[in-house]
Amino acid sequence: DSEKLHLSKIGDIKIKLHRPIEGKIKTCTIRRMPTGKWFACFSVDMGDIPYPPWKNGSIVGIDVGLVSFATLSNGEKIDNPRFFREDEKALAKAQSKRDKLPKGSSPRRKASHVVTRIHERIVNRRSDFSNQVSRQLVNRFGVIAFEDLDIQNMLKNHHLAKSISDVAWGMLVKATESKAAYAGSKVVLVDPKYTSQMCSRCGMIVKKDLSERIHSCSECGLTMDRDLNAAINILRLGMQSVRKSDRSSVL
């Protein structure tokens, strides 16, 4: 059902709500997408929200990757949806068709609109996936630890840039951070140095390249999935960060 939204200097416009608005509306941001669609984003004050007591003390470390989208320190894995890869052929075909048309012509403008629509679909699917995963995380865990990755620097690796952009790790972290405060959760970013190389049992540095998917420690004999090993290390660093923060607040 459509609702009416009153905008200053514009008047009443009809909108379709994604879901009922809860709380007191504080701000409204109007966005126009490249395809010409308009969206109204509301920021609301929900007041004091009772936090679920069962989440106290629950903490998880999360290793994001290209093989699996994410690996949790409890052993769970979230598959990589590969949104861009799925639409890559359709995008390449639409771009090729556009590029063959005369510049400035009406057919080229229509073809450009198709390309823009495919890009928008990829972004929307990525955003929706990140929001769904982040919602599940903050509903389950009191503290969520991620690596503090320098994604812009990682994109300089031309062999992996397309895959890194497709999984949108930064989008997941930001979505989780934005939901955490309202769900009684906390996001902790830890130093990513050696999280993939260090043995989560004995601390030994076990060198391995990206193609090696198993962590095998010659020192203590631990053998496990390399992403799970990294997630457990991230969990440990996250717990250390929380304890340090708690001590600082007491002092």
Describe the structure.
With 251 residues, the protein is of the alpha+beta class. It contains six helices and eleven strands. The protein has helices spanning 83-99, 106-140, 151-154, 161-167, 169-180, 226-250, and strands at 2-7, 11-16, 24-32, 38-45, 59-64, 68-72, 77-79, 143-147, 186-190, 214-216, 223-225. The chain has a five-stranded mixed sheet with strand order 7-6-5-8-9. A hairpin with a 3-residue loop joins strand 5 and strand 6 (68-72). Helix 1 runs antiparallel to helix 2 (106-140). The longest helix is centred in the middle third of the chain and has 35 residues, at 106-140. The protein is flat. The relative contact order is 0.13. The model has no long low-confidence stretch (mean pLDDT 85).
Compute the CA-based radius of gyration: 22 Å
Mean pLDDT across the residues is 85
Order of helices and strands: EEEEEEEHHEHHHEEEH
The separation of the N and C termini measures: 54 Å
Query: What sort of overall outline do the alpha carbons produce when their principal axes are compared?
Result: flat
Question: What's the number of extended β-strand segments?
Answer: 11
Biggest sheet, spatial arrangement of strands: 7-6-5-8-9
What does the largest sheet look like?
5 strands, mixed
How many H/I helical runs? 6
The residue ranges in which pLDDT falls below 50 over 5 or more consecutive positions are none
Structural class: alpha+beta
Q: What percentage of amino acids are in beta strands?
A: 15-25%
- Helix share, percent: 25-40%
